[in-house]
Amino acid sequence: MAEEEQMKFFWRIVDLIVGGIFIYAGTIKVLDPVRFGLDIDNYKTLPWFVSVRLAFYLPWLEIFCGLAVISRFLYRGGLSILTALIAVFIGVTIAAKLRGLDITCGCFGHASEHWSFPQHMAVDLSIFIALAALWFANELQRPAVQQ
Amino acid sequence: MKLRAVREGLILIALAFLPAIGEGIYFRDKVSWQSRIPASELVTVDQARSWGDSAMWVDARPDEEFSRDHVPGAFSLNEDHWNELLAQFLPNLSRDKRVVVYCSAESCNAARDVAKRLRDEAQLKDVFVLQGGWEEWLKKSK
User: Fold this and answer.
1) Model's pTM, two decimal places?
2) Best residue of B4, B109, B114 to probe chain A, by most A CBs closer than 10 Å
3) B135 shares a domain with B77
4) Which among A8, A103, A133, B79 would be 20 to 30 A from A48, CA to CA?
5) DSSP state letters, A72-84
């Protein structure tokens, strides 16, 4: 029982960290949506008029999903969207690298501008793994909670 | 379980629209909705060259790239050492000249950021971003 409580506590900490990362990343982008629009546009996958509209929308989605993960309200929805977002982001980053684009990602503000490709990948994959782990942990805990 | 995740996801997707629309309305006049940089703020290499001595060139790339090579007569002004470089640039500035800012390529943001700061902080009016940046300059110089 104590071990189960410990595990629950551990996953709550992971919830807080992952949710906090997305709230932080979203807030930075909300403050400068034009900058984020340029960052999206740099991937050369979408026309500008789509990039700029996404730049206004995606940060709020990150913030709401981050809050959902932290508060555990609409938790599964939040986890699903964040997992999809980070998977898409990893995909387009790899594609951009393969196309030889020199991308500056504003994901975490000025701090991340000078990150190398492996650094970006390490951070993104860590977040992806954390999200996937939260999914599985939630699945394992669920029957016990419901019964 | 999956259905619930989808339903919750849709709620979050819908909720995020509300502040996004509000922010879009707030920024409506500050954003170029149709092109990356407003056409009025862009200049091609040929146009900028045709301005001759009435143009001042500003290199927004990092120091090491500037030291490697740059447009002849360009001043280095990047955000890594903004205050220091701006102090060196301003005494050379002539208010009746056009300022052309460039960074490494079409995809970089540094030129747009430096141009914006020159307009906001140095109250310069005729500040342009070089289309295609240094890469385009090199192509046109071959």
Assistant:
1) 0.71
2) B109
3) yes
4) B79
5) TTTHHHHHHHHHH
